[in-house]
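The records we work with from here on pair a chain with its fold. These numbers are not coordinates but entries in a learned vocabulary of local backbone shapes. To see the layout at work, look at the sequence and tokens printed below:
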Amino acid sequence: MKDPSGTHDQAGESTATQPAKVKDPSRARVGVGLLGCGNVGAALVELLAEQRTIIAGRTGLELDVVRVAVRSASRSRKVAIADGVLTTDAAAVVRDPSVDVVVELIGGIEPARELVTTALKLGKPVVTANKELLANYGAELYAAADTAGVDLLFEAAVGGGIPLIRPLRASLAAEPIRRVMGIVNGTTNYILSRMTEEGTSYQDALASAQSLGYAERDPTADVEGFDAAAKAAIIATVAFGARVLAGNVYREGISDIGPTNIAHAGRLGYVVKLLAIVEQVGRVEGKPELAVRVHPAMLPVDHPLASVRDSFNAVFVEGGAVGELMLYGRGAGGRPTASAVLGDLIDAAGNRYRNTWNPIGDLGEAVIRPIDDLASEYCIDLEVLDRPGVLAAVAGVFGHHGVSIRSMEQEGLDDQARLVFITHRATERDVQATLTDLRELEAVRGAPALLRVINR
């Protein structure tokens, strides 16, 4: 890795197209190029205007939005943009010599990937909230930033307004982290909170989330876990210093969770949450072996994450030296997310004018342990005919696959019964084999429901 004392292009030569740097940041004017002016971009412009004097007094930096790229220049906006600042040419914003720092808020892979790469090659720091881009091409972009000797900062990509990435990269850089587990999607947490507290159905809770603006018209990215999986990949990369992609993350959503699952969990002393879990489970040939997954799970009611409700997010960090930490706050929304972007923007601008940057470091390879090889406790819920011998047959299937039952609840349903089992720790492979054989029993009605149980 190059020493962070100057900026060079990939051939090692001085990059002539960069705006000049100064070593004294006192009252340094920083031109900001903004790509995208939706909810977060508009909120960022507002915050910059509101906090301009405070930022200048504390940092010596005068942050000016000099160019803004949007899809439609004629569309009405929440904030006023000065004449000559607005454009539909995002590439022109990146290349404009008056732009010192680029803020990318357009989302998606392309053209964001090309725009960010171009900015970095021009020696311009980039601040982004683009989780999809980083979860799929993060390693490539981090390397480009380090080669150019500029920042690529992305606090807002994971926890909205929650400061998570900076603590992982700085305060906990030397911490032997064991596990990071969190609620990182506000939409699904709102839906599960309504189902838990009001007994509503999944569909009614989703409709409520959509009416409040928490869920998109097409909620697939949220409710099927894609959003959380992208964030889990970023967290794993930063926490363990290894390349982890969105495709490495095991993913399940919440669309199959019903009021019955929620109610049974509550009677047993648990709440259901969609969790992103990244943990180191071993080492293979000197490489960290990681388990990275997103799925609904049952948490004990006394776990700190269990009380996180509505659209709030929280991340629980377990380290070998520090013990347990939890970061909590608004995981989405224009102003909370813009607050995280602004924090990164101030850091990037200050580093630029001090001729330094904050490299992410060398990312090594990781071994991803398949979900089938992970062990957990499980809650298995199935409906059966209420007749002699059924319970023995069901227990025999569990025993055949070596899955030990810790507790069992039975509820009568006329000529049927609902059986709810909590297992001792077992591998996913054995539990899935158990479910397959349970479906073949004549007395079992419908598909068994499964939730993993996370105990502290």
Q: What stands out?
A: The mean pLDDT is 92. The radius of gyration is 25 Å. DSSP finds 14 helices and 18 strands in the chain. Residues 54 and 321 are 36 Å apart (CA to CA).
